[in-house]
Specification:
399 residues, alpha+beta, 7-stranded mixed β-sheet, 5-stranded antiparallel β-sheet, 10 helices, 20% strand, disordered C terminus
Length: 399
């Protein structure tokens, strides 16, 4: 445009000095070679206009040409630095994605008879992984899952999450009860925090978690709550919070607790289990209101788990204004309609929560001996426990 103005008005006004802007603007979007080419063309235009005006050797024209050449060289240098930083940022993001896939492995869409979907939202814009964690593994008789939240966020939280996930994957396939398995994970976290150099942080670090066993051939789900928000069981028009009969403490507190309580709930054909971390329920809108996950999930009328998570993800980000203050994770597990055999006791299971009107979000407790269908009133309620023996170095042995 500047060249056209100068050619159209060979006398006055003379817009040649404005050619110094061309290489500077080119450096914003173009690479160093194209920026250099732009500077060469701008310098050539300056000399052509000087020849046409007959003052090529004047001090003013020589100063203008020198200014364009210097600006072009500086713009090419800035363009090269910008491209180098962009490549470094791309590599960092690629490494972050690889680290996420290694630490927080994607869940398969099918695990035995279950359909599974997961979504992770990190609080840090440039990080794709944080302190929230989840994992799943197939056992001999079902599927075992872990969802948790490490105190804090950033690289320290990632390190603690990687430790717990490694312990889970290493022992999830063992033929141990859910209570014994929870005790093992607790001991693993405590042992890691007792390592040299971590003693100052040992009392400040913990992991809220929830361990879940879903049998293949029984319409039930077993849950151990370790200070984690209860999952939601979704049925058409209904979201039920599966609250713990006796909530346990978070992992890693290094307390001599007597054992871990295992709660059992209905989880039959067509049911969908929604697991989440507190980053979801504690997301606030500009007015300071928390995200109403239970109410929003109760209105869901779709079928596929991945569609539910995509709906909740979009709704959550819209509620929080597009950016979360804490890491958030959601896992949806569906038991598709099909034949499911009774459990080993031969007792039938209810197909829906009794006395709960559709479209209402409620909370239920696990099975109790007062249930006229599942057990006599005279049967005492005893949670499954596992004893723990302290060894030197804060390491624990299961007994």
């Amino acid at each position: 445009m500047i060249t056209s103005v100068n050619l159209a008005t060979p006398g006055h006004p003379y817009a040649g000095p404005l050619l110094i802007v061309a290489p500077v603007l080119a450096a914003v979007t173009l690479g160093p070679w194209l920026t250099t080419l732009t500077g060469v063309l701008a310098s050539t235009d300056q000399m052509i206009f000087a020849v046409l005006l007959g003052d090529l050797h004047s001090a003013q024209r020589m100063t203008e040409i020198f200014a364009v050449v210097a600006a072009s060289a500086f713009a090419a240098l800035l363009s090269g630095m910008r491209e180098r930083k962009a490549r470094e940022l791309t590599r960092v993001r690629q490494v972050s994605e690889i680290a996420q896939n290694l630490v927080l492995r994607p869940l398969p869409p099918r695990m035995g008879p279950l359909r599974v979907a997961a979504v992770y939202l990190a609080a840090e814009r440039e990080m794709k992984i944080g302190g929230d964690l989840y994992a799943a593994a197939r056992t001999a008789h079902g599927t075992r899952l872990l969802v948790g939240d490490v105190r804090g966020k950033g690289l320290t939280a990632v390190s603690d999450a990687a430790l717990l996930l490694s312990a889970f994957r290493g022992a999830a396939h063992r033929q141990t009860s859910l209570a014994e398995f929870t005790a093992y994970l607790d001991a693993s976290v405590c042992w890691n925090l007792a390592e040299p150099g971590e003693k100052d942080l040992a009392q400040e670090c913990f992991v809220t978690a929830m361990l879940i066993d879903i049998p293949d051939h029984s319409p039930t789900v077993q849950i151990v709550h370790c200070g984690h928000p209860p999952p939601l069981r979704l049925r058409p028009g209904q979201a039920t919070a599966l609250c713990a009969h006796q909530a346990g403490l978070p992992l890693g507190l290094q307390l001599d607790i007597p054992g871990h309580c295992v709660d059992t709930f209905d989880f039959g054909q067509g049911d969908l289990l929604l697991l989440y971390t507190d980053g979801v329920t504690e997301a606030r809108n500009p007015r300071g209101d928390f995200y109403p996950l239970t109410e929003r999930a109760a209105t869901w009328s779709g079928e596929r788990p991945e569609e539910l998570l995509e709906h909740l993800r979009t709704d959550l980000l819209a509620h929080a204004g597009g950016q979360l203050d804490d890491d958030a994770a959601m896992i949806a597990i569906e038991r598709p309609a099909g034949r499911i055999r009774h459990n080993i006791t031969g007792l039938p299971h209810h197909s829906r929560a009794e006395g709960t009107p559709p479209g209402q979000a409620v909370a239920v407790c696990p099975w109790t001996p007062d249930d006229p269908v599942r057990g006599p009133r005279s049967t005492p309620a005893r949670p499954v426990t596992v004893s723990r023996v302290r060894l030197p170095g804060n390491r624990a042995m299961l007994g």
